[in-house]
Amino acid sequence: MAIKTDLCPCGSGKKYAECCEPIITGKIKAPTAEALMRARYSSYEKDAVDFIINSCTKPKEGNNDIDVEETRKWAEESTWHGLTILRTEKGGVDDDEGIVEFTAVYTTKKGMKEVHKERSYFTKKTGEWLYETGELILTTVVREGEKVGRNDPCPCGSGKKYKKCCGR
């Protein structure tokens, strides 16, 4: 049985209604780049894709490079497990630009647990923090245990060969 919580998905430890919800609903503007990053993460969990799109600089400039449907699909088809802010650079109340480096953990609809690690760049235009762009930070995958061969039985227990099951 899932326990319902009113804590904010962004991991701040605050209640959602006092943390990211007012930013997502437009009641207040994000005071810092980190606050906007947290609200954007919470938007993925809450399926508030319009906020994700509208908190970018590109749509405001009329040059929408964002694939709205793919963003919506990613938000809706993923189970979001948590956000960790790794580092911030500038992005404070008195700054006009900032960097937030973070990891977001999620599970795809196929059951694969993923870690999205990104360095995001933010700018403040007319008093509003906006997401400018991001760089994926690639990590090396370290295998735990032995490698499963293509012709070995699938470790999921299906009885099929790995190449015909989870190895597809």
Structure explained in plain terms:
This protein is α+β, with helices and mostly antiparallel strands and 168 residues long. It contains five helices and four strands; from the N terminus they run αααααββββ. A four-stranded antiparallel beta sheet has the order 1-2-3-4, covered by helices on one side. β2 (97-107) and β3 form a beta hairpin. The longest helix has 13 residues, at 33-45.
Task: Summarize it.
The protein is α+β, with helices and mostly antiparallel strands and 168 residues long. Helix content is 21%, strand content 27%.
The 3D shape can be described as elongated
Largest sheet: 4 strands, antiparallel
| Residue runs with pLDDT of under 50 for 5 or more positions | none
N- and C-termini, Cα separation: 32 Å
Blueprint of the fold:
Blueprint: H1 21-24, H2 33-45, H3 49-54, H4 57-60, H5 68-76, E1 79-90, E2 97-107, E3 113-125, E4 128-136
Antiparallel strand pairs: 1-2, 2-3, 3-4
Which features characterize this protein?
168 residues, alpha+beta, 5 helices, 27% strand
